[in-house]
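About this split. The held-out portion is used to measure sequence recovery: a designer receives only the C-alpha cells and must propose an amino acid at every position. Recovery is the fraction of positions where the proposal matches the reference. Here is one held-out target exactly as it appears in the evaluation file.
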C-alpha cells in the first residue's frame, strides 16, 4: 500500500512539474510577442507613399465629381446628364438599337449609373480641396489659405520661404488647370513624380476613358452605350494632404472612419509591421501545434488537463472551440495589438475602472500576456488532441465513446436492430399479427385516399367510419363470446374437472386455451410424480428399516448367546467377532445415511484443491485390491501419460472412486475384466468405469442413484444401497455430471468434470 501511495505521489508531482514548465514556456513566448510591439511604435510614415500612379488615377476619377458638385451649386444644374452627355451620341445610339427607347430613358439611366459610381472627397477627412471657377472667379468649398496660395502661384518657379514651409507641412498637394477647351495642365505638384500625373496632359483621351471605363449598362437593351463625356472647362482644382492629417490616419489605421483607399496606402508600412507580428505569432502557434503532435505518450495527456478534456464529448469541445474562435475573430491579433499600442484599451480601462494610469498599464500587459498564452495554449492542446485521435488507439476510443453523436448513432442502431428483430420475429401466419398489419395497411390507404380527395374525402370519411364501427362491433362481439367460453373452461379446471378440453376455436384466446391444456398435462404429471415420490418414500423407509434391522437383530441375538454360561471360549470369540462385524456395518450404514442427508440438503462444505485424478484412482485400486482379488477381477486401465489435475475435494473424490470400485467388486461377474479410463478433452475430463454384471440388470439403471436402491433386489449382498447416491451427490456438488447406462450385462458409469 505504501509503495502504491508513493508511486501515486511521484506521478502527481511529475504532472505538476510538467504543467509548470509548459506554463513558463507559454509565458516566455507571449512575452516575446508583447516585446515586439515596439517595432510598430518605431514605424514612420513613408513620405513617398503617395508617389504612385494609382493615387494619381484615384484623384483623376474624382475630378468629375468635384466639377459636377461645383456646377450643381453655382449654376443650378440638376442632373449629371445635362452637364456631361452629348445629344448627338444619344441620337446615334437610339438609331442603332431596334427598340422603342426614349432619350429621357438613356439620360435617366446615365444619371443612375453616375450616382452609383460617385466616389467624391466629401467623406474623406484627410483630403483638403477646392474648385475654382475661372469664369466667375469664385471658389467652391471652403477657401483654405494654403490651397489658395498653392493655386495662385506656380510653385515650380516660386522658390520662397512660404513654399518651403508648405512643402514641410504637406505630404502631397497638386493643382490642375482646365482651359476653355478642356485641356489640363499641371501647375503645381509636390510629394509625387510628375510622370505619374502625365496622363493629365492628354486629358481628353485619358481622363475620359477612366470615367467611362465602366460602360454603364442601359436597362432597356442588351447593348452597352459608351458615353463620350463632355470635358471639364475653365476650372482649377487643387488638392492637398497635410502630414498631421496623414499621421492621424497612420495612428488609427483600424478605426472605421479612415478605412478608405488613401488611408490604406498611407498606413501601408505600419500594416506591414502588424503583419510581421502576426507572422511571428503564427510561427509560434505552429511550433506549439507541432510540439503537441510529437510529444511522447508518457507526458502528453498530463499537460493542461488533457486527460480530462479527452473525455469531454467532442461536440461540446467543438462548441467551446467555436466560442473561443469567435472571440479571436472579433478581437483578432491585429486589432488587439492596435488597441494596445494606440492606447484604446487603456482608455477603456480608465473609463470603466477607478484605477491610476500606472496600474492600467500593468493590467494591459497582463491582458496581453494572457491573450497570447491562451492563443498558444489552444494550438498546443489542439495538436495534442489531433495526435490522440490519429495515433493513440486508447485515446481515440475514449474520444469516440464520449461523443454524443456516436452515442446517438449507437442508440439508433440499437433501435433499428430491435425493429429488425421484431420484423424478423414477425410471423405473418399468426392471425393476430396478420390482422393488425392488415388493418393498419388498409387504414393508411383509406386515410391517404380521404386526404387527397378534398371535399369528397369528407363523405368518404363518414362512410369509412360507419363501416369501421360495424366491423369493430362484430369483432368485439366475437371476442366477448370467446371469453365466455374460456371462462367456463377455467371454472371447470378450478372445480377439479380435468376432462378433455374442447378443440373449439377461441380466436385471440387460443394461446390461453393451449396454456390451460398444458396446465392440465403438467398437473397430471405432477400428480404422478407425487405418487411416485410417496412410493419411493415408502420403499425408502422399508429399505432403511430392513438394512438397519438386519445387523441390529444379529447383534441382539449374539448378545443373548453370550449370556449363556455353557458356551465355550471359542464360541464366545466367534460371537464377539460377529457382533463387531455387524456393529461396523451398522456404523457404516448410519454414516452413509448422514453423508447422503447432508449432501442432499446442501449442508456440507467442500474443500477444493489440485487433485491428480489418475493417481487418486490408482491409490483407490491398491486399497481395494483384496476385494477385487477375492472377486477374481482383472483391472484394465487407460490413463493419459501426463498428470490430469482438477480442482476437487480430495476426500470426497476418493469416496466417489472407492464406492464405484467397491460396487464393482460386489456385483461384477467373477473372472471378468473391469475397464477404467480417463480422457482429458479441451474443456472437460471424462472418467469411465465398465464392468460385466453378475446378475441380470432387470431394473432401470438410472434409478440406481436413488437412496437405498440396489441392483440386488434380494438384498443378499453386503451394502447400504447408498453407494451410488453418495457418488451422485458428491459429483454434482463439485460441478460434475454422472451418467449411468447399461448394454445387456455391460454396466457403465461415466463421470464428467470441468477442467477449470
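Reference sequence for scoring:
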Amino acid at each position: 500500500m505504501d509503495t502504491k501511495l508513493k508511486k501515486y505521489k511521484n506521478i502527481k508531482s511529475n504532472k505538476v512539474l510538467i504543467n509548470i514548465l509548459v506554463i513558463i514556456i507559454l509565458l516566455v513566448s507571449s512575452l516575446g510577442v508583447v516585446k515586439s510591439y515596439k517595432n510598430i511604435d518605431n514605424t514612420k510614415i513613408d513620405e513617398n507613399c503617395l508617389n504612385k500612379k494609382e493615387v494619381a488615377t484615384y484623384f483623376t476619377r474624382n475630378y468629375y465629381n468635384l466639377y459636377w458638385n461645383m456646377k450643381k451649386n453655382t449654376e443650378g444644374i440638376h442632373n449629371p446628364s445635362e452637364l456631361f452627355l452629348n445629344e448627338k451620341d444619344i441620337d446615334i445610339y437610339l438609331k442603332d438599337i431596334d427598340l422603342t427607347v426614349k432619350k429621357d430613358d438613356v439620360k435617366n439611366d446615365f444619371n443612375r449609373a453616375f450616382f452609383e459610381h460617385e466616389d467624391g472627397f466629401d467623406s474623406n477627412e484627410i483630403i483638403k480641396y477646392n474648385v475654382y471657377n475661372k469664369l466667375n472667379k469664385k471658389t467652391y468649398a471652403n477657401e483654405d489659405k494654403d490651397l489658395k496660395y498653392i493655386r495662385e502661384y506656380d510653385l515650380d518657379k516660386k522658390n520662397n520661404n512660404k513654399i518651403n514651409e508648405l512643402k514641410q507641412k504637406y505630404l502631397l498637394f497638386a493643382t490642375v488647370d482646365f482651359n476653355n477647351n478642356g485641356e489640363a495642365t499641371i501647375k503645381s505638384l509636390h510629394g509625387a513624380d510628375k510622370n505619374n500625373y502625365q496622363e493629365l496632359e492628354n486629358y481628353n483621351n485619358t481622363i475620359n476613358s477612366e470615367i467611362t471605363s465602366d460602360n454603364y449598362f442601359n436597362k432597356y437593351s442588351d447593348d452597352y452605350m459608351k458615353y463620350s463625356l463632355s470635358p471639364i472647362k475653365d476650372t482649377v482644382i487643387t488638392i492637398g494632404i497635410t502630414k498631421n492629417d496623414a499621421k492621424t490616419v497612420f495612428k488609427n489605421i483600424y478605426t472605421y472612419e479612415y478605412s478608405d483607399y488613401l488611408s490604406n496606402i498611407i498606413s501601408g508600412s505600419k500594416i506591414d509591421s502588424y503583419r510581421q507580428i502576426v507572422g511571428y505569432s503564427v510561427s509560434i502557434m505552429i511550433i506549439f501545434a507541432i510540439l503537441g503532435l510529437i510529444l511522447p505518450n508518457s507526458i502528453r495527456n498530463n499537460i493542461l488537463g488533457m486527460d480530462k478534456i479527452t473525455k469531454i464529448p467532442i461536440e461540446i469541445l467543438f462548441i467551446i472551440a467555436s466560442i473561443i474562435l469567435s472571440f479571436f475573430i472579433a478581437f483578432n491579433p491585429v486589432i488587439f495589438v492596435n488597441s494596445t499600442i494606440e492606447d484604446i484599451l487603456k482608455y477603456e480601462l480608465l473609463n470603466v475602472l477607478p484605477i491610476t494610469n500606472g496600474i492600467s498599464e500593468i493590467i494591459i500587459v497582463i491582458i496581453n500576456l494572457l491573450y497570447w498564452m491562451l492563443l498558444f495554449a489552444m494550438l498546443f492542446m489542439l495538436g495534442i488532441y489531433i495526435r490522440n485521435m490519429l495515433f493513440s488507439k486508447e485515446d481515440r476510443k475514449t474520444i469516440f465513446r464520449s461523443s454524443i453523436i456516436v452515442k446517438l448513432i449507437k442508440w439508433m442502431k440499437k433501435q433499428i436492430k430491435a425493429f429488425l428483430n421484431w420484423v424478423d420475429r414477425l410471423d405473418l401466419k399468426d392471425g393476430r399479427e396478420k390482422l393488425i398489419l392488415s388493418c393498419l395497411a388498409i387504414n393508411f390507404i383509406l386515410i391517404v385516399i380521404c386526404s387527397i380527395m378534398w371535399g369528397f374525402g369528407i363523405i368518404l370519411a363518414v362512410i369509412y367510419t360507419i363501416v369501421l364501427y360495424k366491423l369493430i362491433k362484430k369483432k368485439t362481439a366475437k371476442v366477448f363470446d370467446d371469453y365466455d367460453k374460456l371462462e367456463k373452461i377455467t371454472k371447470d379446471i378450478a372445480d377439479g374437472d380435468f376432462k378433455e378440453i374442447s378443440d373449439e376455436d377461441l380466436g385471440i384466446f387460443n394461446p390461453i386455451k393451449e396454456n390451460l391444456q398444458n396446465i392440465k398435462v403438467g398437473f397430471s404429471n405432477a400428480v404422478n410424480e407425487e405418487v411416485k415420490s410417496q412410493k419411493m418414500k415408502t420403499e425408502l423407509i422399508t429399505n432403511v428399516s430392513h438394512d438397519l434391522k438386519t445387523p441390529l437383530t444379529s447383534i441382539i441375538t449374539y448378545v443373548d448367546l453370550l449370556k449363556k454360561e455353557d458356551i465355550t471360549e471359542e464360541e464366545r470369540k466367534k460371537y464377539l467377532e460377529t457382533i463387531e462385524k455387524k456393529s461396523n456395518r451398522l456404523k457404516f450404514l448410519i454414516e452413509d445415511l448422514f453423508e447422503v442427508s447432508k449432501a442432499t440438503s446442501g449442508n456440507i462444505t467442500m474443500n477444493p484443491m489440485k487433485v491428480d485424478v489418475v493417481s487418486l484412482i490408482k491409490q483407490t485400486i491398491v486399497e481395494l485390491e483384496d476385494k477385487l482379488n477375492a472377486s477374481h477381477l482383472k483391472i484394465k486401465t487407460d490413463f493419459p501419460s501426463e498428470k490430469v489435475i482438477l480442482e476437487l475435494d480430495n476426500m470426497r473424490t476418493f469416496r466417489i472412486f472407492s464406492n464405484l470400485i467397491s460396487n464393482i467388486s460386489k456385483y461384477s461377474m467373477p473372472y471378468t475384466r473391469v475397464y477404467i479410463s480417463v480422457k482429458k478433452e479441451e474443456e472437460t475430463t471424462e472418467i469411465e468405469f465398465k464392468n460385466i454384471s453378475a446378475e441380470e440388470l432387470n431394473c432401470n439403471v438410472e434409478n440406481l442413484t436413488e437412496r437405498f436402491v440396489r441392483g440386488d433386489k434380494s438384498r443378499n449382498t453386503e451394502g447400504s444401497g447408498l453407494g451410488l447416491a453418495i457418488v451422485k451427490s458428491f459429483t454434482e456438488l463439485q460441478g460434475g455430471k454422472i451418467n449411468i447406462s447399461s448394454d445387456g450385462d455391460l454396466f457403465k458409469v461415466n463421470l464428467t468434470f470441468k477442467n477449470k
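Annotator remark: Residues 510-562 form the longest helix (53 residues).
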